[in-house]
Structures are given as structure tokens and as C-alpha cells.
Amino acid sequence: MTPPMTPPTNEPFDVLTMGRIGVDLYPLQTGVGLAEVETFGKFLGGSPTNVAVAAARLGRTAALISRTGQDPFGDYCHQALKGFGVDDRWVTPVASEPTPVTFCEIFPPDDFPLYFYRRPKAPDLHIRPEELDLDAVRAARVLWVTGTGLCEEPSRAATLAAVAARGGSTDRTATVFDLDWRPMFWGEGGKESADGRANARALYREVLAHATVAVGNVAECEVATGVRAPRECAEALLDAGVELAVVKQGPKGVLALHRDGTSAELPPHPVEVVNGLGAGDAFGGALCHGLLAGWELERIVRYANAAGALVASRLACSSAMPTAAEVDDLLGR
Ligand SMILES: Nc1ncnc2c1ncn2[C@@H]1O[C@H](COP(=O)(O)OP(=O)(O)OP(=O)(O)O)[C@@H](O)[C@H]1O
Ligand SMILES: O=C(O)C[C@@H](O)[C@H](O)C(=O)CO
Q1: Which of 35, 155, 172, 316 is the right S-S partner for 43, CB 3.0 to 4.6 Å?
Q2: What is the pLDDT of residue 147?
């Protein structure tokens, strides 16, 4: 495991992520539905949590803003964050809610349904704007927020406050908006609704006006922009305010478009897929790493593709995040 890493006193974090945390309970049998699964592995989970772990694995200082239940799974989340070298000082308990658990089914190469247990309300949706350490939020070199953080109050107000606090900065690397569309969190009783989608789009527009980078798969870009063709999505995201738009197309590759006119369009790195879940988070952690390093766009996308591919070739999400040596190795460096 990565040793805990905290920046020297008063130094900002390289990567500060905000949003979901929980426990992934993933089947140890693949190709069968949950009704048939007999044993599960326990892993730290939650997409922005995984992004922080991915960045830490690549040698970056990373912290998370989130909330768990006040229960043994909450203790596990803290223990696991520390083990991965992600600072947990802004992960606080909510006494009234259980720590969420997430199951999945594994049907390689491309079918990995997720089953979220986040009711009545996930602790991370209780992140409050008045409890944010806005100095740390402003100072972080990369701030990473997600679409799911907008689905309910008070997390919605907290997410908007965090991105607004970063407005007008020139000395930070990026404010990243992961478009992260999970329809079941936006409708009544966990069912997707047209209203949910329309509400999400309006809120996504608010965040895009403050963010400098937007990243999402095609379905997520469609929620944000109303269009589906990758180049149109990227252009619409630039029009909405960001400097860099990254459209992930799973097996079809990635398109990244920068406001300065540079672009990169690359195929995925071929691997034998075990579980595609978490690939997007590995991609995200590597994207942060490349932006922090100041690499040119094509190098960043190539690197993030390789990190995503490595996680797609492994069962878990957080504990599967690659080291820089593993990414370099896959890229043949
Ligand atoms: N089957 C695959 N083979 C190779 N690379 C992959 C594969 N699946 C994903 N990747 C890599 O990971 C990146 C992100 O994957 P994907 O497009 O599935 O993101 P996502 O929908 O955000 O995923 P997640 O399930 O983690 O939320 C891809 O752009 C690609 O670089
Ligand atoms: O929060 C999620 O998106 C699900 C996670 O628990 C899981 O780790 C995953 O699939 C990450 O993409």
C-alpha cells in the first residue's frame, strides 16, 4: 500500500475531491447475477474517493471531502483512506445514516450493473456548505466535484459553493467537473424521471460556468449539453465555460478538446477486461496527475487511457489504481 502522504504544513493539496464514499461489495464470481453470487470482496468505493486514491497512487497529495455513517463501515472507510495515503480530515460522520454499500454484477467485457444502497439518504449528500474549509478548497491545486453531488441538498449547495469559491483563479491548475450521471439519484423512489434530467442539466450548467475542466462519458455529456455526438458534446462543454472538455467513449476511445484549439483523440489501450467499473476514476486520477505535471494534451490522454485500461483489467476500483511505474510499463516507457 501507498504510505500516507500529507503536504508540508500550509502547502495546498495537489488533488481535493468531494462527494461519494462507501464500501464496494464486489462479487468474487464473474458472469453470474447477484442471486447466484456466493462470496464478495470488500473495497473502499465511491467515485470521487477512487479518484483521490488514484491520484495518491501516482504520487500526488490527495484529500477527500465527504461524510460516512457513524458505524463500523464508516471506520473502515477512514482506515482504508489512510492506508491509501488519502487525507481524511474532512470526512465527518453523520449519526443518522448508514455508510452506503454498493454491489455490482460482473459480465465482461462490457456489462457491469451497479446496485447502490444509499437510502434513506447517503451521508455524503449531507455535506454542508457552512462546514467546508473554503481556504483549503480555494488553495487545492485541483478540485474535483461530481454531478451526483448536485442531486440533493445540502450537498448541492456545498458543491456549488466549492466551485464558486474557486472563481477567477489563475494560480491553480484546474477545477474539474466530473459529469457523473447516476439517473437513479435524480428521480422519485430511485426511478429516472424527465424532470430529474432537466433539473440536473440546469445545475450542471451552473457548475460548468465555474469549472475549468469537464469530463464525462457520452451519456453524461448528453445530460449536460443535450447533444450526443462526441465533438458536438465537447464544443458545447467549451461553450458552457470550461477550458478543457474530455469525452470518454469507452471502447471507442477519448476525445479531448481545449479552448486554445489543441485536441487529442485516442483509442483505448487494449486489455483483457475483468471489471470495467472504476476505469473512469483511474482515468480521472491520471488526468489530474497529467494536468498537474503540465503535460501536453495528447500525453495526458494517452496516460489516462492506460490507467483506465489497467483498472478495467482488474476486479476492484480503489485498490486496483495503478502506480506510475505500472502505467509507464503498459505504455512501454
Ligand atoms: N474495456 C476497456 N479497455 C480499455 N480501456 C478501457 C476500457 N474501459 C474503459 N477504459 C479506459 O477507461 C476510460 C474510462 O472508462 P469509461 O468510458 O467506461 O468511463 P466511465 O463510464 O466514467 O467509467 P466508470 O464505470 O468507472 O464510471 C476509457 O476512456 C478508457 O481509457
Ligand atoms: O460511487 C460509485 O460510482 C460506485 C463506486 O462505489 C464504485 O467504486 C465504482 O463503480 C466507481 O466507478
Answers
A1: 316
A2: 98
Which of 105, 248, 327 has most ligand 1 atoms within 8 Å of CB, for mutation?
A: 248
Pick from 26, 50, 68, 217 the residue to mutate for probing ligand 2's pocket: most ligand atoms within 8 Å of its CB. 50
Q: What percent of the chain has pLDDT over 70?
A: 96
- 189 CA to centre of ligand 2 in angstroms: 20
Region 300-315 average pLDDT:
97
Domain assignments of the chain as residue spans, ordered by start: 15-19+47-97+120-324
For ligand 2, what atom is nearest to the CA of residue 112? Answer: 10
Asked if ipTM goes beyond 0.95, one says yes
Task: Provide Rg for the chain, Cα atoms.
Answer: 18
The closest residue, in CA terms, to atom 5 on ligand 1 is: 309
DSSP code string of 159-216: HHHHHHHTTT-SSSSEEEEE----GGGSSGGG---HHHHHHHHHHHHHHHHH-SEEEE
60 close to ligand 1 (CB < 6 Angstrom) = no
Please give the CATH number for the structural domain made up of 15-19+47-97+120-324.
3.40.1190.20
